[in-house]
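PROTEIN DESIGN WORKSHEET
SECTION A - STRUCTURE
LENGTH: 493
C-ALPHA CELLS:
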C-alpha cells in the first residue's frame, strides 16, 4: 500500500504534464501565435492554481524550471542578441533583445531585408503583427505606414518597426532610367495582328503604342520612345550613403504616387509607382509640343533663338521639342510657345517642374528617339525628302559657310585682343607699379621700347611665331638698340 501511494502523485504529475502539452498544442494550432515561451508559463501557472494535485517535490521541480528559464535562458538570449544584427548603440541592443525574446512568445514581428529598393522577405512573415526589424542596404530607402496612415520614412541601415507598422513603398536610390514606347527598334506599333502573334501580345503592343502616341499639327500620328533619367533629390553622401538619402524626398515620392486615370476600372491596379511618373509626364508634354508642328518641319532646322539655347546651336524641330520638354521638367520658368510653335515672348511657370519637386524627383535628362509612323506615310515622307535633298544640301552649305565666316572673324578678334594684351603688358606694369608707387613715369622713348620688347618676348616664347618671324625678330632687336641710343643722345634735347 505504501509503494502504490508513492506512485500516485507521480502518476498525477505525468497526467498533468501530458494534459498541459495537449493544451499547448491545441492553443498553438487554434490561435496561431501561441509561442514556445507561453508553454512553461501556462504549465507553471496551472500547477500553482492546483497545489492539491501534486506534492511539494513536483512543485519545486517546476519552480526550478521556471527559474532556469527566466534566470538562464532569457538572460543569455538577451546577452547574445546584440550580436545577431549590426547594432551600435545601447538602445539598438535593447530593441534586438526584445525582439529575440518575443520569438519565444507570441509577439514576433516580421524581419525584412531591402536590397536595391526590392523587398526580400519570407512569405510566412507577412501576417505577423508584432514589432519587427528592417535592414536596408546603402542603395535603399522606404516609407512605412500602419493601418490608418503613413508613419515615417527610413533610409539605409537598421530600422526597428512598431507593431502593425509595415512598408508602404520602397525606393531604389540609384539613378533611375525608365522607357516608354515600342520595344526595340524593329517593332512596328502600327502593324496588324500577325498570324503567330497571340491576342495578349497584340494587346501589349497596342498599349505600348498608346503610351507615346501623339499627333502633329497636320494630323499625322508619330510614336517614339521616351526615356527618362532621374533620381531622388539628395546630395551624394547625404544620409550616410554614397547615393544620397533625403527623408523628405523619400516621403514625398511614396506618399504622393499617382493614379492612372486611363486604366480600366477592373484592372488589378491603377497605381503608378514613383519611378514611372517622369516618363508619363514627359509623354504628356510630347503630345503637347508635337501638336504645334507639322510633319515636314520635324527634321528641319529651327532658327528660333532663346535664352536656354546657345547662339551656335542649330537644333532640328525634334531636338527643339526634346529641349523644351527638358526645360519644362527641370526649370521653374520657361519660354512660352503659341499653337504653331512660335515664341510668344512671355516666360511662364512650369507646373511639371513643380510637380516633380513636390514628389522629391530630380530630372537629369529626357530623351526622344526612334520616331515611328505608318508605313505609307513614312514612304511618302522619304520620297519627298529624297526629292529635295539637293536644295537642303545647298542650304546647309550656305549655313556652314556663314558659320565659318563668323568663326573666322571671332578668331581674328580674339587673336588681336591676345596680341594687344601681350604688347602692352610691360608698359602697363610700369605705369601701374604695385610696390613702388613713387616711381617716375616712363618717357616716350622708354614707352616705345617697352612695347617693342614685349612684342619681341611674345614672338620668342611662341614656337610657331618664332619659326615664322626670324627676320622680324632681328628688326625688333635693332629697333630697341636705336631707341636706347636715341634716348641717351645729349643732342636730342
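SECTION B - SEQUENCE
RESIDUE ASSIGNMENT:
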Amino acid at each position: 500500500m505504501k509503494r502504490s501511494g508513492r506512485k500516485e502523485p507521480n502518476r498525477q504529475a505525468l497526467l498533468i504534464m501530458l494534459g498541459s502539452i495537449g493544451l499547448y498544442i491545441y492553443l498553438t494550432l487554434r490561435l496561431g501565435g501561441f509561442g514556445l515561451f507561453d508553454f512553461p508559463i501556462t504549465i507553471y501557472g496551472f500547477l500553482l492554481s492546483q497545489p492539491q494535485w501534486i506534492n511539494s517535490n513536483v512543485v519545486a521541480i517546476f519552480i526550478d524550471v521556471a527559474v532556469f528559464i527566466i534566470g538562464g535562458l532569457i538572460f543569455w538570449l538577451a546577452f547574445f542578441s546584440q550580436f545577431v544584427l549590426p547594432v551600435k548603440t545601447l538602445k539598438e541592443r535593447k530593441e534586438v533583445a526584445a525582439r529575440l525574446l518575443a520569438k519565444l512568445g507570441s509577439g514576433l514581428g516580421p524581419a525584412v531585408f531591402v536590397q536595391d529598393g526590392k523587398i526580400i522577405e519570407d512569405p510566412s512573415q507577412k501576417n505577423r503583427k508584432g514589432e519587427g526589424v528592417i535592414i536596408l542596404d546603402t542603395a535603399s530607402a522606404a516609407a512605412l505606414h500602419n493601418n490608418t496612415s503613413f508613419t515615417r520614412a527610413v533610409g539605409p541601415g537598421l530600422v526597428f518597426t512598431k507593431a502593425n507598422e509595415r512598408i508602404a513603398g520602397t525606393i531604389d536610390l540609384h539613378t533611375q532610367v525608365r522607357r516608354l514606347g515600342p520595344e526595340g527598334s524593329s517593332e512596328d506599333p502600327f502593324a496588324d495582328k500577325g498570324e503567330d502573334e497571340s491576342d495578349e501580345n497584340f494587346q501589349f503592343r497596342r498599349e505600348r503604342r498608346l503610351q507615346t502616341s501623339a499627333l502633329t499639327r497636320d494630323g499625322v500620328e508619330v510614336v517614339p520612345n521616351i526615356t527618362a533619367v532621374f533620381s531622388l533629390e539628395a546630395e551624394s553622401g547625404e544620409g550616410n550613403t554614397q547615393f544620397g538619402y533625403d527623408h523628405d524626398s523619400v516621403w514625398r515620392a511614396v506618399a504622393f504616387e499617382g493614379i492612372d486615370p486611363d486604366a480600366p476600372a477592373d484592372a488589378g491596379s491603377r497605381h503608378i509607382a514613383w519611378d514611372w511618373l517622369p516618363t508619363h509626364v514627359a509623354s504628356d508634354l510630347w503630345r503637347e509640343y508635337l501638336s504645334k508642328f507639322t510633319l515636314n518641319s520635324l527634321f528641319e532646322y529651327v532658327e528660333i533663338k532663346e535664352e536656354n539655347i546657345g547662339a551656335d546651336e542649330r537644333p532640328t524641330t525634334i531636338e527643339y521639342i526634346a529641349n523644351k520638354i527638358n526645360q519644362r521638367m527641370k526649370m521653374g520658368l520657361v519660354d512660352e510657345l503659341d499653337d504653331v510653335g512660335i515664341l510668344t515672348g512671355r516666360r511662364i511657370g512650369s507646373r511639371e517642374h513643380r510637380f516633380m519637386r513636390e514628389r522629391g524627383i530630380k530630372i537629369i535628362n529626357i530623351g526622344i528617339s526612334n520616331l515611328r509612323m505608318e508605313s505609307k506615310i513614312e514612304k511618302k515622307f522619304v520620297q519627298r525628302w529624297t526629292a529635295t535633298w539637293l536644295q537642303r544640301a545647298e542650304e546647309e552649305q550656305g549655313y556652314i559657310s556663314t558659320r565659318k565666316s563668323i568663326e573666322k572673324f571671332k578668331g581674328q578678334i580674339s587673336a588681336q585682343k591676345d596680341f594687344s594684351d601681350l604688347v602692352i603688358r610691360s608698359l602697363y606694369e610700369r605705369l601701374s607699379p604695385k610696390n613702388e608707387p613713387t616711381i617716375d613715369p616712363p618717357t616716350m622713348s622708354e614707352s616705345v621700347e617697352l612695347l617693342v620688347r614685349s612684342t619681341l618676348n611674345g614672338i620668342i616664347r611662341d614656337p610657331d611665331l618664332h619659326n615664322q618671324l626670324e627676320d622680324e625678330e632681328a628688326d625688333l632687336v635693332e629697333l630697341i638698340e636705336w631707341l636706347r641710343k636715341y634716348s641717351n643722345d645729349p643732342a636730342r634735347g
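SECTION C - NOTES
The two ends are 156 Å apart (CA to CA).
The first helix runs from residue 2 to 31.
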